[in-house]
């Protein structure tokens, strides 16, 4: 089962080659830009690392068919990919496998105009159809919301999601309604000129009031569903990542922090926080669903169990988002409240601290 969602991706799905309905139904189209710090490596090896659910044989077949282009020219699977190479790949797949159909799914729209939709996503909502999640996603909800606008095609990769957040992360996410808006906004995310702040509850009492975590991220070779930090230069696929954090509130055995992304890699906050010994509270994938700090008393264990019940997911919320509007050029900044589950979780910890005094 695939569960592979992103805070931000440098890999943006490319335009359909002919813009035809047939093309959209029969092929997947991907575009990758090799990082500046990427070591020179075979293009098939590079792509299989980027596309975790695609076999190397499938990628090599695409190369043999002339469907892998580097800087606009077809290459064989043994081509050595270099930093800043622009790689596009076309893969065939069964028709309608990932067709986005309108579904009446409640979503909170924070802002909307002719170019963009800003959604405050609830936890538990997948953003995009994929293996194991063919429908019931944010994009299915957007398709329903736009169903009376015939010019809006939810299956056109030239519009839609500009960035992504994990299924169980709540918060602000931006959707482009036009090709122009997606291209403009996509460049802002790629150039890292957007402003995003998250709030997270993490295990442990952080020593410093603020700090910066720098650590290259790549898939964990022992568990492909996880990412981990690698020393600089050790893993040719590891991507440079920077997270700035600031303590907002200390609550005995947990800390409420604000995280500002300088880069946006898959699971970046979750992995960086674990790397410095402060795994996100109830982050099951990275071990935060275990009692990592505190006492061994039955009362404390019952308290934590109740906390997990109140917030049954990683305690992470994409709270703010700032960007330049693609058409007006106006800087726009949005802030969202913490969702109910995180507010109740934090309040439980505040009460716990009061009872300790």
Describe this protein with a few key phrases.
357 residues, alpha+beta, Structural Genomics Hypothetical 15.5 Kd Protein In mrcA-pckA Intergenic Region, Chain A, Pseudouridine synthase, 3 domains, ten-stranded mixed beta sheet, four-stranded antiparallel beta sheet, 8 helices, 18 strands, 29% strand, disordered N terminus
Fold and architecture overview:
The protein is an alpha+beta fold. The chain has 3 domains: 72 residues, Roll (Structural Genomics Hypothetical 15.5 Kd Protein In mrcA-pckA Intergenic Region, Chain A); 84 residues, Pseudouridine synthase, CATH 3.30.2350; 161 residues, Pseudouridine synthase. Helix content is 23%, strand content 29%.
Record the SSE blueprint.
Elements: H1 21-26, E1 27-33, E2 41-42, H2 43-50, H3 56-64, E3 68-70, E4 73-74, E5 80-81, E6 86-92, E7 108-112, E8 116-121, H4 138-145, E9 160-161, E10 170-176, H5 179-191, E11 195-203, E12 210-214, E13 216-220, E14 223-230, E15 242-251, E16 254-261, H6 268-275, H7 298-310, E17 316-324, E18 331-335, H8 340-356
Parallel strand pairs: 10-17
Antiparallel strand pairs: 1-6, 2-5, 3-4, 3-6, 7-8, 8-10, 9-10, 11-16, 11-17, 12-15, 13-14, 15-16, 17-18
Helix pairs in contact: 2-3
Query: If you average the pLDDT, what whole number results?
Result: 87
Unreliable segments of 5+ consecutive residues: 1-26
CATH homology group of the largest domain: Pseudouridine synthase
In percent, how much strand structure appears in the residues?
A: 25-35%
User: What does the oligomeric state look like here?
Assistant: single chain
Order of helices and strands: HEEHHEEEEEEHEEHEEEEEEHHEEH
Q: Major sheet, described briefly?
A: 10 strands, mixed
Total count of strands? 18
- As for the CATH topology of the largest domain, it is Pseudouridine synthase
